[in-house]
Amino acid sequence: MNTKARKVMIIGTGNVGASAAYALLNQRICEELILVDLNTPRVEAHAQDLSDAAAYLPGMMTISTREAADCADVDIAVITVSGGALKPGQTRLDELTGTAKIVNSLIPQMMAGGFNGIFLIATNPCDIITWQVWTLSGLPRQQVIGTGVWLDTTRLRRLLAQALDIGAQSIDAFILGEHGDTQFPVWSHSSVYGEPIEDVYQRRTGKVLDRAAMADNVRHLGFDIYAGKGCTEYGIAGTIAEICRNIFTGSHRALALSCILEGEYGINDIAIGVPAVLAQNGVQQIIELQLNDDDQAKFCHSVAVIKANIGRLL
Q1: Is residue 47 a contact partner of residue 64, using CB atoms and an 8 Å limit?
Q2: How does DSSP classify residue 182?
Q3: Which entry of 46, 179, 252, 301 is annotated as an active-site residue?
Q4: Which of 18, 150, 186, 295 has the lowest CB atom count within 10 Å?
Q5: In DSSP terms, which residues pair with 132 in a beta bridge?
Q6: CA-to-CA separations, 197 to 60, 164, 188, in angstroms, rounded
Q7: pLDDT of res. 87
Q8: Residues 131/123, Cβ–Cβ less than 8 Å
Q9: Per DSSP, what are the bridge partners of residue 282?
Q10: Each residue of 40-74: pLDDT tens digit?
Q11: What is the mean predicted confidence (pLDDT) over 229-239?
């Protein structure tokens, strides 16, 4: 019997980090939660508040605070730090300078502290920061993962499910590319129990699926939420919890994550959202979908945007 406590460290306890901690706690995904934040009163208060919530759960969960460098025993380190809130009209790419500066200081401290777990990056711009963490850490690529387009994929499935009045789990559809403006649904690989999604959509609704409108809705949904409440937190918290659960259980399930490519899709040395199989060592396999010409062009455009912004770090 494996009696080793599963440990997740959350670095940054703003809206996303605190909500992720609460999701991990309620789903009992780990036995120990470790919170890290430069705002000592806030992080200590979160730890106490979460400990109160944990007291209602069956079993025991330890919730504590630490310095980021005290991480040698951590299984998954979730990075949710941010260089500042978006201003009206800005995109996720505008967060790069401030966030990269924090990450540039953080990762060397953690590696000096003996970290050898899995980095899960949930901060924006996700793909560029995932590449930065991989480069700074020197870890094998399977141990550095971004939440990527899994939340976007889930949003696509949810919106389609609502239109079709079926469970989102019945829909097989993926978003690929940047977690940003150049992401796109791969309609040629979208289905409901093997039947093309567009055929099911027309039969169930009596309408032709407007691909462009659906992709646009998914692409802008995060910004719509942000405009209404000043942040997005619960959806990404659920994404973090699901990725951690699939790692700990060694599910071998494919999720659309930001992964470092080394030849897949003909691309090298960037992180981008692609379907990837998760196991206990992180990414076990990257699935290479056969893209049609239109999807290939969109993927290459997304690659070019990510590469251009990686260039800002060099």
Answers
A1: yes
A2: T
A3: 179
A4: 295
A5: none
A6: 44, 10, 9
A7: 67
A8: no
A9: 279
A10: 999 999 999 999 999 999 888 999 999 999 999 99
A11: 93
Closest residue by Cα to residue 286 from 311, 267, 253, 264: 264
The β-bridge relationship of strands 254-262 and 268-279 is: antiparallel
Closest CA to 248 of 40, 76, 20: 76
> What does the block give as tokens for 70?
């005290």
Among the residues of 124-261, which ranges form H helices?
Answer: 126-137, 150-164, 197-205, 211-229, 234-249
User: Do β-strands 268-279 and 282-286 pair in parallel, antiparallel, or remain unpaired?
Assistant: antiparallel
- Tell me how far apart the alpha carbons of residues 279 and 287 are, in angstroms, rounded to a whole number: 14
Active site residue 220: no
pLDDT in tens, 171-191: 999 999 999 999 999 999 999
**Token pair 């540039």 is at which residue?**
104
Residue with tokens 């934040």: 37
Average pLDDT over residues 253-264: 97
Q: Which of 22-26, 38-42, 61-65, 225-229 has the lowest mean pLDDT?
A: 225-229
Contact 62, 32 (CB under 8 A): yes
Task: Determine contact, residues 258/148, Cβ cutoff 8 Å.
Answer: yes
> Would you tell me how many other CB atoms lie within 10 Å of the CB of residue 227?
10
CA dihedral 65, 236, 73, 49 (to 10 degrees): 30
CB neighbour class for 230 (10 Å; exposed up to 12, middle 13-18, buried from 19): exposed
Burial profile 24-49: b = 16 or more Cβ within 10 angstroms, e = fewer: bbeeebbebbbbbbeeeeebeebbee
Ramachandran category for residue 212: left, alpha or beta (phi over 0 → left; psi -120 to 50 → alpha): alpha
Is the model's pLDDT at 143 over the cut of 80?
A: yes
CA–CA separation, 218 and 165 (whole Å): 18
pLDDT score at 1: 39
